[in-house]
């Protein structure tokens, strides 16, 4: 999916395993506090399984796993887990540190949310992130999501418990900023 002149979303498939592995390892300081996959001992086989799981759920119509391509280079990942029976999805995302500050993630998440509402016919989209992950929360705010609640000490990374913010956006929300 072409998002704009600079950003494209492409299926996250096995051809991108080595790139994703390298991106995660090059961005550990940035990603580790928030992403379970971001560990210094992350193996290529673990990335193969991470990508394979996304491919399998995509084939079943239960997910949208995408690599974010910025000006021809893979910059991160955005994906959605879809619960069709409930008419909702949860979107997750991460961006390599070299690509921060250019609005790439806001554009990518906006495109996925539009697809979920317009093409998939869903009613609700959620974003969940650690309460102290300010960059991810800023994406939610820019896209008009409503902070619906905070789950205390429910997100465990590296033995540290973080509060988890739950943001929601409904197809019927007035003045959808998408």
Commentary on this structure:
By secondary structure, the protein is an alpha+beta fold. The protein has a single domain, classed as Gcn5-related N-acetyltransferase (GNAT) (Aminopeptidase). It is 31% helix and 35% strand. The protein is built from five helices and seven strands; from the N terminus they run βαααβββαβαββ. It has helices at 17-26, 28-31, 44-59, 104-119, 134-142; strands spanning 7-11, 63-70, 73-83, 88-95, 124-130, 146-157, 160-170. A seven-stranded mixed beta sheet has the order 1-2-3-4-5-7-6, sandwiched between helices. Helix 1 packs across helix 3 (44-59). The protein is globular and about 45 Å long. The two termini are 16 Å apart. The model has no long low-confidence stretch (mean pLDDT 94).
Features:
35% strand; 178 residues; Aminopeptidase; alpha+beta; seven-stranded mixed β-sheet; Acyl_CoA_acyltransferase; 5 helices
Name the CATH architecture: 3-Layer(aba) Sandwich
Mean pLDDT comes to 94
Tell me the total number of β-strands.
Answer: 7
| CATH fourth-tier homologous superfamily | Gcn5-related N-acetyltransferase (GNAT)
CATH fold annotation: Aminopeptidase
Number of helices: 5
CATH class: Alpha Beta
GO molecular function: protein N-terminal-serine acetyltransferase activity; protein-N-terminal-alanine acetyltransferase activity
Domain N-acetyltransferase: 18-174
Protein name: Acetyltransferase, ribosomal protein N-acetylase
Keywords: Ribonucleoprotein, Ribosomal protein
């Amino acid at each position: 999916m072409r998002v704009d002149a600079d950003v494209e979303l492409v299926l996250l498939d096995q051809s991108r395993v080595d790139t994703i592995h390298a991106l995660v390892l090059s961005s550990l300081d940035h990603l580790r506090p928030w992403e379970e996959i971001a560990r210094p001992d992350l193996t290529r086989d673990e990335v193969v399984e991470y990508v394979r799981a996304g491919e399998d759920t995509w084939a079943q119509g239960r997910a949208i796993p995408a690599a974010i391509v910025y000006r021809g280079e893979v910059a991160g990942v955005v994906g959605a887990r879809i619960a069709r029976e409930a008419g909702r999805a949860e979107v997750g995302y991460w961006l390599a540190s070299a690509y921060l500050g250019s609005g790439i993630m806001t554009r990518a998440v906006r495109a996925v949310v539009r697809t979920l509402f317009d093409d998939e016919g869903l009613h609700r989209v959620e974003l969940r992130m650690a309460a102290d992950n300010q960059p991810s929360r800023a994406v939610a705010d820019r896209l008009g999501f409503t902070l619906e609640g905070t789950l205390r000490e429910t997100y465990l990374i590296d033995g540290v418990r973080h509060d988890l913010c739950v943001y929601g956006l409904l197809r019927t929300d007035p003045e959808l900023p998408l």
